[in-house]
Amino acid sequence: MTLRALALGLVLACAVSPLGARADDPRTIALVDQSGASFRILDLQGRPALVTFVATRCTDACPIANAAFAGLLDRLRRDRVAARLVTITLDPRYDTPFVMSKLARGLHADPREWIVASGRPQGVGRLMRSLGVVASPGKDGIPEEHTTFVYVLDSRARLSRSLLLSTNIAEQAEAALTARNVARAQPR
Q1: Strands in the chain per DSSP E
Q2: Helices 3-13 and 121-131: crossing angle, nearest 10°?
Q3: Domain assignment of residue 79, yes or no
Q4: What does DSSP assign to residue 187?
Q5: pLDDT one digit per residue (tens) for the chain, 188 residues
Q6: What is the CA radius of gyration of the chain?
Q7: Considering the domain boundaries, does residue 47 fall inside one?
Q8: Cα–Cα distance between 83 and 185 in angstroms, integer?
Q9: Nearby residues of 176 by Cβ (< 8 Å), 6 or more positions away
Q10: Distance separating alpha carbons of residues 74 and 72, to the nearest angstrom
Q11: What is the domain count for the chain?
Q12: Contact in structure between 57 and 144 (CB atoms under 8 Å)
């Protein structure tokens, strides 16, 4: 885990006050899922989640991330791991909620298990910055270079750890999701 991810985890872990989330908590940013429903990362509380960022026009790492999440969902179902997958756009100006809903249909992503989301560019950008997600658009505006991490959120929607998207992401992600401190985050 990088020092930046560790620092971010500490920031997010401290972002919840005893009375609820603070207004500046990035987990309160409004997003829109593939069915058109508005949600916030904070709404994912109750079971752990894996979050990744993709762009629909990316032809490099993003299709790999989508395929990895599809395989991971099958594995989580098989092993009866109660978790949610969340894919958020890196390119909200192009990847509108309509475009992301088309991606979700192609992935057979049921929003009860796998949320595919977009949102207002400013909000998505703020969420990306809070997690250290970096995307550099090429001359055509398509994100050509970007980070490829999977963010593990505990059952209280707090960043638990970051995983590098790799060929063994399914094993790493399932192990991270079933770790006692992630699956049943203890109240502070």
Answers
A1: 16-17, 20-21, 31-32, 38-39, 49-54, 84-89, 114-117, 135-137, 143-146, 149-153, 159-164
A2: 110
A3: yes
A4: P
A5: 344 433 334 333 443 333 355 667 999 999 999 999 999 999 999 999 999 999 999 999 999 999 999 999 999 999 999 999 999 999 999 999 999 999 999 999 999 999 999 999 999 999 999 999 999 998 888 898 999 999 999 999 999 999 999 878 999 999 999 887 676 655 54
A6: 15
A7: yes
A8: 13
A9: 50, 152, 160, 161, 163, 182
A10: 5
A11: 1
A12: no
Give the domain CATH number at 124.
Answer: 3.40.30.10
Q: In terms of residue numbers, what domain contains 166?
A: 3-183
Q: 3-state class of 16 per DSSP?
A: strand
Tokens 């560790």 sit on residue: 6
Q: What is the pLDDT of residues 154-174, one digit of tens each?
A: 999 999 999 999 878 999 999
CA distances from 101 to 18, 90, 117, 124, 150 (A): 35, 15, 8, 16, 21
* Amino acid making up residue 150: V
3-class SS of residue 152 = strand
Which residue, among 19, 38, 7, has the nearest Cα to 159 in the 3D structure? Answer: 7
Residue 188 resides in a domain: no
